[in-house]
Design a protein that fits this description.
Layout: H1 18-32, H2 36-43, H3 46-49, E1 55-56, E2 73-74, E3 77-78, E4 94-95, H4 98-109, H5 117-124, E5 144-148, E6 151-157, E7 162-167, E8 172-177, H6 186-201
């Protein structure tokens, strides 16, 4: 790092940063001896999970037979075909379909991704308040704890308009992309309400 100053000492200040994930990516590459794309594919075992439409843009070829990508915008600017290096190396760069994402996060929360169950527990652990009283906004490792229609769950909102949410009770995962629908966040709430009514009627 040659630019910027630290926000503070560890556990004194909370601030989300893609840089942390970029550093984590370099650790993964060094530990495995592989590129991040190959390391993720092997460590997460895409084939075993059935992830047939997931790849790292710019580092791997897109799987054959996919539909053209949903266009991504920054304001009115169509950023769909920008060089993806702006979003690579742990800060992003993984492309997928909503179907593959649902498969992955359902597997994650049902103990099918990590070999050691304690790894998921660590990922979901509440960091709590920091010593100076600053709140971490309930951000965990790569996700946040949130509620929808009174149900507690875990969620992550992607920069390009994709949202996934997993509700442990009942056990279901929803993935929505609303890149072209500014009001699309309501889809998650309405879908959750419908699923909850189905669960309660059983």
């Amino acid at each position: 790092m040659v630019e910027g100053e630290p926000l503070g000492k560890p556990r004194e200040v909370y601030g989300y940063s893609d840089t942390g994930y970029i550093l984590l990516s370099k650790i993964i590459e060094k530990a495995t001896g592989h590129s991040l794309a190959l390391a993720l594919r092997e460590l997460l075992d895409y084939d075993r999970l059935g992830l047939k439409s997931t790849w790292m843009e710019g580092e791997e070829d897109a799987p054959a037979g996919l539909l053209p990508p949903v266009h991504r915008y920054i304001g009115d600017y169509d950023a769909t075909f920008l060089d993806n290096s702006i979003n690579l190396y742990g800060g992003g760069g993984i492309s997928s379909t909503t179907s593959d994402m649902a498969i992955f996060f359902d597997a994650l929360f049902n103990g099918e991704v990590f070999k050691n169950p304690e790894t998921l527990n660590t990922m979901l652990k509440n960091p709590g308040s920091l010593p100076n009283g600053a709140e971490s906004e309930d951000y965990r490792m790569g996700l946040s704890k949130e509620g929808v229609v009174g149900i507690s769950g875990y969620m992550h909102r992607g920069f390009w308009g994709t949202v996934w949410i997993h509700m442990p009770k009942p056990n279901y995962t929803i993935v929505v992309n609303f890149t072209n629908q500014p009001e699309g966040a309501g889809i998650i709430t309405s879908t959750t309400e419908k699923l909850q009514k189905l669960v309660e009627s059983k």
